[in-house]
Design goal:
Elements lengths: L1 H27 L2 H8 L3 H10 L5 E6 L6 E8 L2 E8 L12 H6 L3 E2 L3 E2 L7 E10 L5 E10 L1 H4 L12 E6 L4 E3 L3 H4 L4 H8 L4 H9 L2 E8 L2 E9 L5 E8 H52 L15 H46 L6 E4 L2 E8 L7 E8 L2 E9 L3 H18 L6 H15 L6 E9 L4 E7 L5 E4 L4 E4 L18 E4 L5 E5 L1 H4 L11 H10 L5 H16 L9 E8 L1
Antiparallel strand pairs: 1-2, 1-7, 2-3, 4-6, 5-6, 6-7, 8-9, 8-12, 10-11, 11-12, 13-14, 14-23, 15-16, 16-17, 17-18, 18-21, 19-20, 19-22, 22-23
Helix pairs in contact: 9-10, 11-12
Keywords: Cell membrane, Hydrolase, Membrane, Transmembrane, Transmembrane helix
InterPro entries: Bact_Sigma-Reg, dCache_1, HAMP_dom, PPM-type-like_dom_sf, PPM-type_phosphatase-like_dom
Pfam families: dCache_1 (PF02743), HAMP (PF00672), SpoIIE (PF07228)
């Protein structure tokens, strides 16, 4: 039992570290970041390694035929290096490839290996399949982690006085062992042969069973052995403890259990004798009353008992039960009323959330025209937009909180309030993003973040200053050039993940130019065949339907979305559309 607790402790340690890596994976699959990774953007790869100290390397191993090289960035001696590696006809390294996972296009963890050429340490990797916007398999995103990050805790596990634990793979190769002398053998079989230990039976069981136990003899001393497979990896945790230490502990526990059992038996015998003498007659009365209560006569009086003993306590229990039944019926009536009250409060919460949005979703003055549309998948949600005019500049923001419901709505309200307070006091869009991100990263502990696009439009000359915090790329429609394109030159991580510095970008808008922003509720909407709407369809719809006003642009996209998904299709996420035109 103690060995199982030790193994469970180790399993929880590896699960927790594995969840950290999987959370990083989920963030890297956000659409704008994913597109840059597939394109092999050097700065994006370096930024990932710089901002995630948990990993020591990041690579995109392309499927043969998609590209003739792999992209790899790694950390070595406090420096970050970027490489393009030719893979030729061998697209994934054999020592890390899981053939079954690759055939099924699944995520998986590799075996550990030594990176001789680059990282120069023992590492193992997390592989995540990647698909482009056309749902074509591109290859695998690989995150490399130092092996010691997952194995250092093994040396600190202790069992009784001299017991210990170690890690090996399913072939018996040692991964971590607290004994330096044994660690020099690398293969546990070699150590067993040196000590003449019959270890082969245990090793065969460890490769086939998820967990188990057995016994071995080392230098004429008997040892208990417990083994368990670890999550995310193909490792086996082995716990070893001397036979005599286990039995000494069991003997002490048995003595204590024996004393407790004898005491309980004596007490039980005395109680039974007392109860039998006074039990039968009152129980018959209680049986009759119980049947009447079961038939619905909840207010039937309970017979009085003269003696103040166990039967009296039983009567009081019946009285209490009767009272609780009546109260439960009353509580059921009240809970029904409360449910109706909660539904009313949710409707009030929706109206309160709407007050955080600008009161006018359409405006045309001060040399610009603007129109916005927000549709929530629940009564309250996490999408937001806001704007105001100050010092001949239009300040605007569009954001999407990770999640739905009340938590996302509260997070949205915090960001909206911060923007309305901070924006007039900042000179650039990047300053606004930096201030909001620093506050949300330091003060919000929940696993939540928001993708956000912040823009400042100078109404005198049409100069647009903007910063993108992990939000889908906006679309720019130019009147003179009659061109529709994405603004893709600025992208940072979402707000609230960690402290970072955001980049400001600028674009000179001409009279009649329109900027269209949206949340992923648009691009990730699905039709009956579970196909995504996608950002390329958004672009094609706008190209095919030239618009004169922001309101026309929003309604054209929204009408096409409803046609694509079907009018009765339930929305999977909150949806925000926002268009602004410089006049």
């Amino acid at each position: 039992m103690y060995s199982e607790l030790i193994a469970e402790q180790a399993e929880n340690q590896i699960k927790e570290q594995g969840r950290v890596i999987e959370r990083i994976n989920s963030m890297l699959k956000l659409e704008p970041i994913k597109d840059l990774l597939i394109a092999g953007d050097r700065n994006t790869f370096k930024s990932i390694l710089k901002n995630t100290p948990e990993i020591c390397g990041c690579a995109l191993e392309y499927e043969p035929g998609y590209k003739n090289h792999d992209v790899f960035v790694y950390r070595h001696k406090d420096s970050i290096y970027f490489k393009k590696l030719s893979h030729g006809s061998i697209h994934f390294s054999t020592e890390r490839l899981d053939k079954d996972a690759h055939a099924q296009r699944k995520s998986y963890w590799s075996n550990y290996y030594y990176s001789f050429s680059y990282i120069k340490q023992r590492v193992f990797s997390r592989f995540e399949p990647m698909y482009d916007s056309k749902n074509q398999f591109v290859g695998y995103l690989r995150l490399d982690i130092f092996l010691e990050e997952f194995t250092d805790f093994v040396n600190h596990l202790s069992l009784y006085k001299t017991g210990y634990a170690y890690l090996m793979n399913r072939n018996g190769i040692l991964i971590a062992h607290p004994n330096q002398e044994i660690r020099m053998f690398s293969d546990i079989r070699k150590y067993a042969e040196t000590k003449n230990i019959d270890y082969e039976k245990i090793l065969k069981r460890a490769t086939k069973e998820e967990s188990g136990s057995g016994e071995i003899s080392i230098d004429h001393v008997r040892f208990f052995v417990y083994f368990k497979h670890m999550p995310h990896t193909k490792w086996v945790l082995v716990v070893i403890c001397p036979h005599h230490e286990v039995f000494d502990s069991i003997a002490r526990i048995n003595d204590l259990i024996l004393i407790c059992c004898i005491s309980c038996l004596i007490l039980l015998f005395w109680v039974v004798i007392r109860v039998i003498k006074r039990l039968f007659y009152p129980l018959k009365q209680f049986s009759t009353v119980t049947r009447m209560i079961a038939d619905g006569n909840f207010n039937e009086p309970i017979p009085m008992i003269g003696n103040k003993d166990e039967i009296q306590e039983l009567r009081e229990s019946f009285v209490y039960m009767q009272k609780r039944i009546v109260e439960s019926i009353e509580n059921l009536r009240i809970s029904t009323i409360e449910k109706e009250k909660i539904e009313g409060e949710m409707r009030v919460a929706q109206r309160i959330q709407e007050r955080f949005l600008p009161s006018i979703p359409r405006i045309s003055k001060f040399h610009f025209s603007l129109y916005a549309r927000l549709e929530q998948s629940k009564a309250v949600g996490g999408d937001m937009y806001s704007y105001f005019v100050k010092r001949n500049c239009l300040y605007f923001i569009v954001g999407d909180v990770r999640g739905k419901g009340i938590p996302a709505a509260l997070y949205m309200a915090s960001v909206s309030t911060l923007f309305n307070y901070i924006a007039p006091r900042k000179r650039t869009s990047s300053d606004i993003c930096n201030t909001i991100n620093n506050y949300m990263s330091d003060n919000v502990e929940d696993d939540m973040f928001i993708t956000m696009f912040v823009g400042i439009l100078d109404l005198k000359n049409g100069m647009l200053s903007y910063a993108n915090a992990g939000h889908p790329f906006p679309i720019l429609c130019t009147r003179e050039e009659k061109e529709v394109k994405f603004l893709e030159d600025s992208l940072g991580i979402p707000i609230g993940v960690m402290r970072t510095m955001y980049k400001e970008s600028r674009y000179q808008m001409e009279s009649g130019d329109m900027l269209f922003l949206y949340t992923d509720g648009l691009t990730e909407a699905q039709n009956s065949e579970r196909h995504f709407y996608g950002k390329e369809r958004v672009k094609k719809v706008i190209e095919s339907n030239p618009c004169d006003t922001p309101q026309q642009l929003v309604h054209i996209v929204l009408d096409d979305l409803k046609e694509y998904t079907g009018n009765s299709h339930e929305e999977a996420d909150d949806l925000t559309l926002f268009a602004v035109q410089y006049l």
